[in-house]
């Protein structure tokens, strides 16, 4: 990195020319120069003095506090700068340092043409070659004081070390390098320079006159002779030729040798370093000759005779050296050519003064600042006396630099009298001194005085430089001086007007301020920024370009821009930089024209040819016409133009510089930050100005030529002209601000430049695409239904739970495979190895076509291979592109966006922005200027916070097979069937996959009857009985099912087939059905699957079904058996077996034949083992009587269950029906279920195709009356009459069922047997009701009781003890007697005296909850039961058959 050439102390620097020598690569040479630059400050206390006595004029021992400042140059200064020497002696290099690469020494011979350079090894030969080339450098640069070769990264051989010639220094590699090695090298070079400065100083002293820069020598005009500028041609005396004397006697005029004169000490000297080492006299003027024009003002005269403060302040008094000087030529008349006042005497004084200024400049460069101050003070006094304004100003400038360096070194000094302000300015300056002392009493007084005098002194020096006289200063040094002085004032202003360590560091070292200034006012700090800027623009180059070269104008404009930047005037700086760009464009066009002409190529065509010749191979930046390296382009010009663009608020791609990590710049966070910076820049500045600046930058890059710059600024121009929005459905205005022709021209320029760079082999030089919202959406196209993988939970696998014991799950209870898959899940699931299609939406808000060279998906996660597509996006539109991709492995693939390569632009990642978006301006302005842009660019605005890049995950599963239905035994997949009929068919499946088998097959079925049933199930008004029927039909009456499901093989080999048998059932409403096959490759048995989720694919076969009616049951009834039944009925039903009437009842069915052919129906009662067969003609209805067994139910009022597990609820309390109706409904339900479980009905045909099927008996509906005929009561009451006198009482003679024959006035025993069939005990209350037969019930009891026709013992109502449950019996006996003939019937009923409740110790072992009265509280179950059925009440049972007594007279 080169040092700042316009630093305030630039005249105190020593320029050293650093050149490559031997074989060395550019990057290594740059690295070695950087190592030397680290030690560019060499302190004299570290420098070894030259031991030769005639080389100690600039001995470092004279002022060990001093230091030498080096400026390492890699190019020789231009002739326009060398011409300013010796006025600006610092412009000429005083040392030549040749840098060699030690790694290359042993590789190959550097130069075979050198004679006498051959050595034993290649390394020794190359070292000798370097020695010979060093001698060539001495001849090439004879004015340099020191010539040195530095061999970096050199490791000497331990076995055969190579002798190192004098003048060559070796430096070990960085890992072996000591901390002081480079410092020692620089100190040795400094020692050589200081020693040879003596020779240079003597050469200067031997000159009688020195011309001012840009003027003809006055000696030639007046015929004077003496040393001239040619005498400055010199060589290092250590390597002088034989015919050259190394002593001072070889000079032309020995009278000018200052070493022979005794030193003249000055009074009041604050340094005292002149006594340490004998040095030359600090003044060329004899003590016997007074100066022509002594100074007119002193500090004492400024303060005035009445001031008391002046005597108390040390260092402010006037030096005694000039006390005796008096003005002798004020009233003198000059006589030309004669006497001391003649022209020749004046010229001699002027020559001695200028020589003294040059000697002082040498002292300044040598670090002997105290000696320099003495020389320059005397020279300034003489120049002032003879009105040599330019050299007077030069002496004052160098004095001021000496004072600054002394202050930086913390050496106390006294301001020379010649630098003190004139008398009329004394009062304000004295007040400023007092104010500065009050503000900071701890500040050293010499620094405080210099701080106050500095602005006035700089104005004074600039006034001397700008005097209109015969000799005038050229524009280059004058402008550079103005810039350096403004840098001094700027450092003082940044340090809050205080000359201290901070300000001195910025002046001497060039340290940048820690916090840059803003546009906030700083009126109280002197000097003010307005004063600095007004002075600074005096350095602005005039329009006359012949006085300055293009390079000099560039340097001056750059210096002005840097000062404005330090002051915080970014817009003024941008204005100057814009002028700088225009100068650069003109200079570059001229340079490339000349360069093309030099090689014989037309300038328009030779631009590329020159870059191809000098372009440094791959990676060149197109700067060959100006011989600019790649690093120069990237670190110099790009940063310079970037600063200009940033100041104007260009909407550029800030994040994509050459030093930015490409991967980092493609992250979502960086892209959002880039959008924030761009949106902030869109509301900053004026758009037209931005566009003009970018056009200038494009012209500048074309003039270089810089291909990367042309591409960058062309894309920035398109980006700045664009709207920067993502249009939505409202069609926001997104038109760019430039014409369509210019858009087309810019894109064409980008394409041509990119193609040209490729053809020249410069490298991959591309632009940055100008629209961040190129990608507006990516969506996975739906996979075809037969290939879509459907997810399922592991728990639905057969064998995973008890409900999944079978491989084919129940289609009603819960079949997740029949569940319609979630489309969102299907749209995010892929199969490894199978391609998937994506719909990519791209936008182009510009009016020219955009050619997409390549586009592919950007994913992360599992391996994914995206296809690469090309397309052209039309002007101002949104376009959809189909893009395919194939996942290669199972896992999760996250689609982050797309990687797009627009032709001419770099390939980069674009995130997905689905939602429309537009930038919003910041309403609250907290800062102004460029600081506002920086603040808005760093903080995310609310609009950008809403902008979220979209991404989605894709689940990739393992490779899966593909199965299709190959064939079926059903013609055209259709079937005709009768209701209740079962028909079989087979289906053949084929595996199309050549590598993946099918090891999991699961069949599911759907038909047209399921949807109406599901709709009925969702009806909230459906009763529990209806819901049970619907569920039962779904669960038990499946229209389609797989036959032999447990025996069928569930495996299909790759490319193989498998056949499966199915059965269809004829159901009312069945019109179509679907066989769905879920298949997968699990790789293991289903019960061993560990993953929580697995995927299947589906293959289906649709069936068309026609169901015709077969047999309909039109009516049903149930009758009790109360009397005798004809034997013919028993013989027909039970095949001759007579069944007891007490345990059976009759079921009557009206069956109609709906099929147009004769049918035979068969009804069978499984419990009674009774079968009835009936033949029915077509269209006829036949009544069938079937005895069935009566049933007993323990709990006929139990809750009606739900077959669907998802609908199972323990209790549903209905508020629409009463408890009595609810009990009746439940009773009918359970007894109907009991009867249907014991019934079977079948039919078959005989004509045509033999068909057979089942009769649908679920259509039977029972009533409460039918239930009374079917059910058996909980309590059985048996009433009998026995003879009490018999030793073994037995029933009386019977003449019929339960009919007893007795005689009048005989004593009989009435025996009542109670049997409790239920599980709960009963507290019985028995009631007996004797009555006359064949009489109404309301009068029979009265006839019996009042007319004394029947007598009994005791009461007819008796409370009996507890009757135990589960078959417990109790026999009650009482005496009765018939008093007359006739027929009597003794009925009986049992009523619960009270409801039995279990004792506390038997209540399930649970914890008892008792109320306050000691009774057990009801559980929640009982409470809910009471709510549905009402509270449990006392029940009454009647004897189904009473005891009939026939009374006769005994004869």
TrEMBL record:
It is found in: Golgi apparatus. Residues 1407-1421 have a biased composition (Basic and acidic residues). It comes from the Eukaryota. Residues 6-418 form the Trs120/TRAPPC9 N-terminal domain. Residues 235-249, 272-286 have a biased composition (Polar residues). The keyword Transit peptide does not apply. Residues 1111-1271 form the Trs120/TRAPPC9 third Ig-like domain. Residues 1275-1448 form the Trs120/TRAPPC9 fourth Ig-like domain. Residues 775-944 form the Trs120/TRAPPC9 first Ig-like domain. It holds the Pfam family Ig_TRAPPC9-Trs120_2nd. Residues 450-761 form the Trs120/TRAPPC9 TPR region domain. InterPro entries: Ig_TRAPPC9_Trs120_1st (IPR058565), Ig_TRAPPC9_Trs120_3rd (IPR058567), Ig_TRAPPC9_Trs120_4th (IPR058568), TPR_TRAPPC9_Trs120 (IPR058564), Trs120_TRAPPC9 (IPR013935), Trs120_TRAPPC9_N (IPR058563). Residues 211-328, 1392-1424 are annotated as: Disordered. One of its GO terms (cellular component) is trans-Golgi network. Keywords: Golgi apparatus. PANTHER family: TRAFFICKING PROTEIN PARTICLE COMPLEX SUBUNIT 9. This is TRAPP II complex. It comes from Podospora fimiseda.
